[in-house]
Design a protein that fits this description.
Helix content: over 70%
Structural class: mainly alpha
Number of strands: 0
Number of helices: 7
Distance between the termini: 38 Å
Order of helices and strands: HHHHHHH
């Protein structure tokens, strides 16, 4: 029996490499060739990641666009990363709800995201009367944590982007 050793290796498959290269590496490399600095890109990375986890479902694209425009950051990088963290966004919504309740001393409310979405679609007024302050609390919790997380992202990503910048600028552009 002949066994392939590809399952035992930790290297990504061709499809994973293709997705990563197309959705993350190529947009970043394009930005370097258009003159974006590592500092600008590290801020755009932080903005994309942080706005991508804004705790109100269905608002992350608008938040990412508005914040990126206000800070004059690279929209390509912001939007690419904000979409990549969507699964994390879903996981963090309940975390920010509970953090907001803790910050404001509010009693924990029972909720489920599917039920809350259903209520929003069928009765927006009832949704806002029931969850309005919860939304405010979780937005405040997100806003309180963001400066610290942004700092950590920027200082950890900037050296990586600087190294990639030097490497990518010394190589000819890859063909599509």
């Amino acid at each position: 029996m002949i066994m392939s050793n590809t399952a035992a290796t930790s290297e990504p498959s061709q499809s994973e490499k293709g997705f990563w290269r197309k959705r993350v590496v190529r947009p970043l490399r394009t930005q370097f060739t258009q003159g974006a600095t590592p500092e600008e890109l590290s801020h755009a990375v932080a903005c994309g990641l942080l706005c991508g986890v804004f705790p109100i479902l269905g608002t992350t694209s608008v938040v990412a666009t508005v914040v990126g425009m206000a800070l004059k950051l690279n929209q390509t990088v912001i939007q690419s990363l904000h979409w990549l963290v969507y699964p994390l966004h879903l996981v963090l919504i309940p975390v920010y709800i509970r953090a907001g309740e803790f910050l404001f001393g509010a009693p924990p409310i029972p909720f489920s995201i599917p039920d809350a979405l259903d209520l929003f679609v069928h009765s927006p007024g009832e949704f806002f009367s029931k969850f309005g302050m919860t939304c405010v609390h979780c937005i405040v919790a997100w806003a309180v944590t963001m400066p610290f997380i942004a700092f950590l992202i920027i200082v950890s990503v900037r050296p990586l982007i600087r190294r990639a910048s030097v490497q990518w600028k010394s190589q000819p552009p890859e063909s599509s």
